[in-house]
Amino acid sequence: MADIRSYIREKKKREEKQAGYKEKIMRHKLAALYRILLVVVCVAAVAVLIVVQYKRHVYTGYDIVSTVTRESADGAVDIRLGNSILTYSKDGAHCTNAKGETTWNQTYQIQDIKLAVSGNTVAIGDYNGRNIYIQDDQQQLGSIDTSMPIRDLAVSASGRVTAVLADTKVAWVNTYNAGGELLYHGQAHMDGAGYPGAIALSPDGKLLCVAYVYVDAGALKTNVAFYNFGDVGENYLDYIVSSWSYSDQLIPMVRFMDDNTAFAVGDGRLIIFSGSQKPEPALEQLFDEEVQSVFYNKEYIGLVFRSEDAEYLYRLDVYNAAAKKVGSYYFNIEYTDLLFEEKDFVVYNETECEIMTFGGTEKFNGTFSKTVKLMLPASGAYRYILVTDDSIDTIQLK
Q1: CB–CB of 203/211 below 8 Å?
Q2: Is residue 313 in some structural domain?
Q3: Torsions phi, psi of 330, nearest 5?
């Protein structure tokens, strides 16, 4: 009996000892877990603080990170072409990257330049002439010789070109590839479907949007038609897959944001169309004010109005590709250009610049040290390229 009691006591001691070990191990694990959680919380707090400070930070100046010299001819115009600089005049055009390297040079003699851009592709035509030159930011893609005078043109990012050509009694709407081959053609009669007042091609060149202007019973009307040059369009008469009529409305501008989204701006109306095969209106926004300017990229559309607030000169209404209004923003710069970034927009002229987030925070409001002809976003947060008469400067806000 004594041996049994002794065995039970020893077993109980072993069990108590093992329980103690387990408790110590558990306390150690919990302590380690608490330390890890504390570190994670501290890191997260620091990260949140950094993000908050970054969002609230207001830049007051900039540093020139790099600069290259350039020559600018009198009368030459600089515009964005993708992430490069397109410089054109009546005597020719050339494309330059941010390093100042010329990627192509095209000579011509054009008295009245008609120009269309889609992404990093440009078509340069001769209004009332018969020549069109197509290039992207890397190379020359081809040229087109038309049989009739050019009145308007559109280009796709893929290099396809649609031109409105003037005939005696009709206007021809012809679509070519970059090599000059005629792919599709159609006639427009002022006393029938109307005159093509605005045209646009989707980036892939599959969809064509034409705004036909006509008079019906003494009233001016616009019919916005979409042509599909793909498999779907082959099942429709003249490739017209959808059309929309607007009474008492002149629509002088139609554009594609991407292959799925187009928009039209008219007298008192913004229409955003959605659909990669048969576009339909996703938003119709009416307004009583006169649109001063329209800016857009693949993500946003911006309409500039005179401000109703006496404290500001202008109001910018921004809409996204999902046909939703992002917000209204006020500024006082007599702008020459405006560009959109992912979370903010930049408005500037030759001497001053303002940058504002879509949340309404002003990130920068200052002046340039040199006269700026063109401003482009560069890689990196709040880093930009400034094109002047004699240099290409990469700057970093500070």
Answers
A1: no
A2: yes
A3: -115, 145
pTM recorded for the entire structure? 0.86
Q: What is the pLDDT of residue 140?
A: 96
- Identify the DSSP state of 53: H
Nearest CA-CA partner of 398 in 73, 17, 63, 32 = 63
Helix (H) or strand (E) holding 51: helix 2-56
What's phi and psi for 338, nearest 5 deg?
-150, 135
Contact between 146 and 134 under an 8 Å Cβ cutoff? The reply is no
Q: What is the DSSP letter of 239?
A: G
Confidence category of residue 169, pLDDT binned at 50, 70, 90:
confident
What is the Cα–Cα distance from 34 to 37, expressed in whole angstroms?
5
CB atoms under 10 Å from CB of 344, counted, come to 18
Helix (H) or strand (E) holding 23: helix 2-56
- Strand order of the β-sheet with 84-89 is 77-81, 84-89, 92-96, 102-107
Total domains in the chain come to 2
Domain membership of residue 374 (yes or no) is yes
Q: Contact 156/204 with Cβ under 8 angstroms?
A: yes
List, for residues 107-154, the tens digit of each pLDDT value: 999 999 999 999 999 999 999 999 999 999 999 999 999 999 999 999
* In contact, 394 and 66? CB cutoff 8 Å: yes
285 DSSP β-pair partners: 270
Phi, psi of 194 (to 5 degrees): 110, 175
Residue 239 lies in a domain: no
Radius of gyration of the chain (CA): 31
Q: Could you tell me if residue 331 is inside a domain?
A: yes
**Other Cβ atoms within 10 Å of 253 Cβ, number:** 16
Q: How far apart are the first and last CA of the chain?
A: 88
- Share of residues in the chain with pLDDT > 70 (%): 86
Contact 340/300 with Cβ under 8 angstroms? yes
Numbers of helices and strands, H then E, in the chain: 1, 33
Single-letter amino acid code for the residue at 396: Q
- Domain region containing 340: 65-72+299-398
What is the CB-side half-sphere exposure of residue 357 using CA atoms within 13 A?
A: 14
- CB 110: neighbour CB atoms within 10 A? 20
279 sits in the region (left: phi over 0; alpha: psi -120 to 50; else beta) called beta
